Amino acid sequence: MANVKSAPLAELKGRLAGQARAHGFDCIGVTGADAIGDAANHFHAFLASGGHGDMDWLAANPARRADPRTLWNEVRSVIMLGVNYGPSEDPLAILAQRTRGAISVYAQGDDYHDVIKKNLKALARWLVQQTGCDVKVFVDTAAVMEKPLAHAAGLGWQGKHTNLVSREFGSWLFLGAIYTTLDLPHDEPETDHCGSCRACQDICPTAAFPAPYKLDARRCISYLTIENKGAIPIEFRRAIGNRIYGCDDCLAVCPWNKFAQAGRETKLAARDALRAPSLATLARLDDAAFRALFTKSPVKRLGRDRFIRNVLIAIGNSADATLAHEAEQLLSDASPLVRGAAIWALSQLVPKQRVAALAAQAAVAEPDAQVREEWRMAAACP
Fold first, then answer.
1. Which among 73, 174, 288, 342 has most CB atoms closer than 10 A?
2. End-to-end Cα separation, the chain, in angstroms
3. What is the pTM of this model?
4. pLDDT (0 to 100) of residue 259
5. How many CB atoms lie under 10 A from the CB of residue 158?
């Protein structure tokens, strides 16, 4: 254990909590390096079922996720921290505005990875200065099971939607971790307070929860619009509605949100341009305009082509024939992913005769097999 220069560890922990709040964190808890427990077995079962889809990064080094000591064998305590990003308005209201895109609450401001990691590093430096200990910091980018650790540290519990739920902040917490060689006093794990509630299960548009506390990411709209690199499977397109980046339904419906307040970290607050952007405007973004609009946003990592794919699915679900022009303009886009989505969008908004005529013309010139299949399916629809 690192040599603590002055106050006992319990007093140090109290001072650490004060520093955490001064650095922008809304809650803090401490647990041991062996705290993953049964969550490790659930994680391995999730991987074995294929529920992670194409998220190969999640399946890489599963042993490291299952035990913090495998990631860093010197760790003695895990300090878990949370930042409230609760929205200032109902995040589901935009779903009725079908000509506008719904971007998940967490992605409407600056990238939380950058914001929180900066604050985590500052807090970790303070701890090192006070004690001379060794530390490592993590924000959702390393092989760390943040939610089980946050549960063990008393920040909340993993709800039936598999996300962390807090009695104080509802389902709106970003998590960060500091691994340390200090043997700090541990907090008690939080109790599961979901009870018989199944609101998050019932609201899911794509039935992504095969059972409470279990997620099949391959059916999840957040996975389909963010992690999925190919075409959106046709069986899920209508259910996606106007969700163009992520999905907040299961989070927003959680009854524990009634105690939550809007987040206080201004850099994470929603930008006006991303609250309810026009689908027509978004469809016209080229790569440079996409990058400019989403500077510092997690959406930028998606890339223009996958983002426009999502926008086109939303256009197809808009029931607004005036948006057919935007889809038609993208039939000749350089990206096969975009062209394929444009075909589906157009097929939902114009007469079938028009689609059939365009399909006949495109069959000769289209070089991509998947795009040709999109034309075939669009022309064949009754």
1. 342
2. 71
3. 0.91
4. 86
5. 19
Which segments of the chain does DSSP mark as H helices, in order? 9-22, 39-48, 56-59, 62-66, 68-71, 112-131, 146-152, 199-203, 221-222, 234-240, 249-252, 272-275, 279-283, 287-293, 304-316, 324-329, 336-347, 352-365, 369-380
Burial 307-333 (b: 16+ CB within 10 A, else e): bbbbbbbbbbbbeeeebbebbbebbeb
Enumerate long-range contacts of 294-300, CB under 8 Å, 24 or more apart: 296/110, 296/111, 296/114, 297/107, 297/108, 297/109, 297/110, 297/111, 297/271, 298/106, 298/107, 298/111, 298/112, 298/113, 299/103, 299/107, 299/245, 299/274, 300/111
Half-sphere exposure of 226 (CA within 13 A, CB side): 19
Catalytic choice (54, 140, 192, 305) = 140
Contacts of 344 (CB under 8 A, 6+ apart): 234, 237, 312, 313, 316, 374, 378
CA 292 to chain centroid: 21
Contact 226, 302 (CB under 8 A): yes
State pLDDT tens for residues 53-94. Answer: 665 555 566 555 567 888 889 999 999 999 999 998 999 999
The residue with tokens 């959702």 is 140
The H or E element containing residue 165 is strand 164-165
In this predicted structure, the answer to whether residue 42 has a pLDDT above a threshold of 90 is no
211 DSSP assignment: B
Biggest CA pair distance of the chain: 80
User: Residue 72, exposed/middle/buried by CB under 10 A (0-12, 13-18, 19+)?
Assistant: middle
* Residue 249 among the catalytic residues: no
Half-sphere exposure of 235 (CA within 13 A, CB side): 6
**Cβ–Cβ under 8 Å, residues 215 and 59:** no
What is the 3-state secondary structure of 26-82? Answer: CEEEEEECCCCCCHHHHHHHHHHCCCCCCCHHHHCCHHHHHCHHHHCCCCCEEEEEE
> pLDDT tens digit string along 139-172?
976 667 899 999 999 999 999 999 999 999 999 9
Q: Cα separation of 235 and 232, whole Å?
A: 8
Closest C-alpha to 210, from 93, 354, 51, 31: 51
CA distance 236 to 202: 16
